[in-house]
Amino acid sequence: MALIAFKRIIKNGFLNFKRSGLVSWAAVLVVTVTLCVITIIILLQAVLHFSLNQIKDKVDVAIYFTTSAPEDKILTLKSSLERLPEVATVSYTSADEALKNFRDRHSSDYPTIQALDEIGTNPLGAYLNVKAKEVSQYESIANFLKSDDALVIGSASIIDKVNYYQNKSVIDKLNAIISGAQKLGFLVTLLFVILSIIITLNTIRLTIFISKEEIGVMRLVGASKMHVRGPFMIEGAIYGMVATFITVILFWPAMAWFGAKMTDFLGINMYDYYISNFFQIFTILLLSGVGLGIISSFLAVRKYLNK
Amino acid sequence: MIYFNNVSKIYKDATALDDVTFAVETGEFVSVVGHSGAGKTTLTKMILAEEMPSLGTIFFESVNVNEIKNKDLTKLRRRIGVVFQDYRLLANKTAYENIAFAMEAVGKTEEEIRSDVPHVLELVDLSNRIYHFPDQMSGGEQQRLAIARAIINQPELIIADEPTGNLDPVNTHEIVQILKKINDLGTTVILTTHNRGVIESIGKRVITMEKGKIIRDSKHGK
């Protein structure tokens, strides 16, 4: 019995969609616009996320050791740093490698190389490059270095300098920009999503307003609330499904163009991103579209049902 | 079957029904006549619980219509078939689907729908209009379809609110004949009209209303 009723509701929903003609397509158009806004937000978030990650990746802290610092002490420090939960990676560059890198970098700078040759010994110390998981965590890593007793031989520290203190203001500023950008992104997203939902809700309300007389007639011939409401909700779900397909199809060539023309500018290939996350994007759109359609129809019909 | 006890309906600035008392027996054909604004439509709306009385009580059999709950409203309406002056058909459904909808509403099976709908369409002479939409049909045809929809679930009562109001004399005659036939088969009919000719051709009980009051209740169509 319930199955028959459910089948009828689905069938009537499809029939209504087909027969409402232009009105149905107007509703689909509005839901499509909403889903396009959601897609653009998803893609913008991806660009923002990618850019922020790239910036974050450029930040690191280098710990320069004195030339006399014994290697085993440095390696002990390296492994204790790696154990810190805030630390993502630590890379070690020995004094010899540091010298080699320096020579390579200045291979065309003859006076510098000559000066280096004249010294005879290696004036450069080894160093560790530390990358934190989050930009905000560099400070606690720096504090750890300050407090670690292992870094002291006799009365002198083996650490020559930590460039965190020179970069501190830049890192702090960057940190503020990143968290600001994330907050702003979230607020803008929220605003657009709310606006789109309101617009969709009102459009579907208008399409159901046209059927207000019919809803009354259905109730008068003894149809239960679900029997009246069901087909409208199915119709709403169909708006969402059709709009989802239109949206993903529209974005396909748009993303291909972006991928071809804007990859250098954005630093991320949007077409690759779109294709590799296609299933997730499609699911988000389908759930949003169908959910919006069903909920809007449910609310809109409710107004005329209690008669 | 239907009992109105001292029923009044008062809107902010007007009284639609003024202390109305009457009863309708099962199997009766009652015509309610009066000018526009006499309270005929308000009266029918109250039987359907579309409007609630300001004063007094209305019973449909043992159901107190004033105090009906939402879930019982559907049950009440399934016992009543309604025909309106403006037909009130579902515009985006065919003749067949309009009737099938009323059957689906009461939970009839597909087999019952497939066998009953053509029958009832034949009864109101619309066999050749099965797949037409209401806007492809004439006024008389639409009203006959509305009657078919009203009787398909074999209701105990048919309420016809000015069913001939928009029709020419030929179609009016046809509709009246169909309603008489339905009544002969045992269904109670309440018909409202302002057309004296209709009442005379029926020749059954007539309740005359004026300004919300019943001014005459005659057993044999005057």
Q: In percent, how helical is the residue content of chain B? A: 25-40%
Extract low-pLDDT stretches of chain B. none
Query: For the largest beta sheet of chain B, what order do the strands appear in spatially?
Result: 6-7-8-3-9-10
**Oligomer classification:** heterodimer
Beta fraction of the residues of chain B? 25-35%
Order of helices and strands of chain B: EEEHEEHEHHHEHEHEE
- Give the CA-CA distance, first to last residue of chain A: 26 Å
Order of strands, widest sheet of chain A: 2-3-1-6
Average predicted confidence as pLDDT of chain A: 84
pLDDT < 50 stretches of chain A: none
Average pLDDT metric of chain B: 89
Distance between the amino and carboxyl termini of chain B? 23 Å
Count of distinct strands of chain B:
10
Number of domains of chain A: 2
* DSSP helical segment count of chain A: 12
Rg result of chain A: 31 Å
Major pleated sheet of chain B: 6 strands, mixed
CA radius of gyration of chain B is: 17 Å
How would you classify the helix and strand content of chain A by structural class? alpha+beta
